[in-house]
Amino acid sequence: MELTADERAELRALVNSPDVVATVATRARIVLWQAEKRPKKEIAELAGVSRPTVDLWLSRYEAEGLGGLLDHPRGAGREQVPARVRARILAATRVSPPAETGLSHWSSREMAAWITRAEGVSVSHHYVAKLWRENGLRPHRHGTFKLSRDPEFADKVADIVGLYLSPPGGAVVLSVDEKTQIQALDRTQPLLPMTFDASEQRTHDYRRHGTTNLFAALNVATGEVYGECLPVRDGANFLTFLKKAVKPHAGKKVHVVLDNLSTHTTPEVMTWLQANPHVRFHHTPKGSSWINQIEIWFGIITRQAIRRGTFSSVKVLIGQIRDYIDHWNADAKPFTWTASADEILAKVRVVQASVKKLVDNNAK
């Protein structure tokens, strides 16, 4: 079986995706191994399956493409859903609902109704929920993947992922962003009504003591974080922070990955960049801040130090953040970036193609 470069990239995306169940990833590996001209006996041993099973998935892929690697529903009785519809449900789940629906995220009922209208195939919400469980998808708990409309999306992804996987020799790569409006909440002091009767409901609001903005820079090579809490998020404070973040790397080329906020491109910032040509900005695609590694770290500090913390003042909150950064840096390790630019773009192409078909079919 001969595979195109796009087909190989799409299959590798399935193998490496954390959202794909292990059985489907194994089927994708079977196809890739076959394309490498490995004997079927060897493929069966590598995959831990029988020879007939290898033949099954190769024939399914040849006939149906990626959708053929998904499980056909068992015991469905009155509801036999084509593989192409299953594949489109999985693709659409990872995308924010169309604007005209007014939805912020998918529910199983809304997805079933959407697919029924778009594909002309009756699908129950029970089926959608079962499919989500089988593939580890929880759109009501996790944000969906929003497609970037940036015309330079592919070029920017290739540029930034290239920095992660193969940074220029001797250069430093910093992943930079701000986590804004972090609240100092005193969770030990709920504001309760002084008097109430059976018809009243106690409120459990917590004392709020102000907010701070965390500016942070992650050294992609070492995992170390430099952070600073500032009261206002603006271009002047960003430039002050940036100067401090790059100062330890004097004499080296510094590549800074950051998003497209206006505070990152003020005239003062651009003037400073011109005067410091050893520092170069690499902007993430619009609507794709997920590619910025500092966002991973923000998620970690939020879960481990901020979300359930009790802070009697902004000063206490800032102290907690500083202590956490010191603790992190004492045993810092870099994040392991495994997805290549081609694999990321392959996933995007799969989603874009599926969404386009859904939209086109719905418009008919």
TrEMBL record:
InterPro entries the record matches: Homeodomain-like_sf (IPR009057), MscS-like_channel (IPR052702), RNaseH-like_sf (IPR012337), RNaseH_sf (IPR036397), Tc1-like_DDE_dom (IPR038717), Transpos_IS630-like (IPR047655)
Pfam families linked: DDE_3, HTH_32
Domain Tc1-like transposase DDE per the UniProt entry, residue ranges: 188-317
Superkingdom, natural source: Bacteria
Recorded coiled-coil stretches: none
UniProt protein name: IS630 family transposase
Species this chain originates from: Lentzea miocenica
